Amino acid sequence: MNIEGHARRTGLKGAEVIPLVTRVLSNEEILRGLERGDTIAADAFYERFGDTINRRVWRLLGADADHDDVVQQVFENVLSSIRGLRDPSSLGDWIAGVAVNTVRRELRRRKVRRILVLVREVPDAPALDGGPEEGANARRFYAALDRMRIDDRIVFALRFVDGNTLEDTARLASCSLSTAKRRVERARKAFLSEAGQDPILASLMKEVDHGR
Question: Which of 93, 110, 126 is the last residue of a domain?
Fold first, then answer.
């Protein structure tokens, strides 16, 4: 809507035209608003953290058929436990932790399901924007991660896919720095072992080995 044009047509003077301004909510306002169930705060939350949550789930799971469901579960877990957060300045890190824990639970659920179900169908994961070949390579990469221990896979993805420091990896994975280092090293060796025997993964071997 052209406010100035509307003002000229209706005979309003420039001084009487009030521009529409959308105020950006602070993290504290978003937090307190979510506690009250405020829809404006919820919209601000999705706007500020939606893409970040989406990317983090993708980096932990890969191009996964259940990606959207897992992202939705992250949002639900955030909203259901938001009252437990007291420090608005830690909202971003807290949400990241919820995302990591949600993915961890999903991976554990899948492991239990694989044990209980002898044969199951897994739909093909969607291709990446780079095309079918990159999509196939990504599926091969995450298939290698699927064969890791769940906690090792989490720290591996946080460290080498998400690009976090060891300190941030430990914090996001809710473990000590020494535990994170041990898991990262174990996962790194497992991945390098597979990559050394797989030409599709071989090109990633040096990058992972040097990104310690």
Answer: 126
Q: What is the CATH number of the domain that holds 65?
A: 1.10.1740.10
- Could you state, in chain order, the average pLDDT of each consecutive group of 10 residues for the chain (212 residues)? 43 47 79 87 91 91 88 91 83 91 88 46 40 66 86 91 90 93 92 78 61 54
Q: What is this structure's pTM?
A: 0.65
Q: Do 140 and 111 lie in a common domain?
A: no
Which DSSP string do the residues of the chain spell out, in sequence order? --HHHHHHHHT--GGG------PPPPHHHHHHHHHHT-HHHHHHHHHHHHHHHHHHHHHHH-S-TTHHHHHHHHHHHHHHHGGG---GGGHHHHHHHHHHHHHHHHHHHHHHHHHH-SS---PPPPPBTTBHHHHHHHHHHHHHHHTS-HHHHHHHIIIIIS---HHHHHHHTTS-HHHHHHHHHHHHHHHHHHHTT-HHHHHHHHHHHH--
Same domain, 139 and 206: yes
Domain, as residue range, for 165 = 132-212
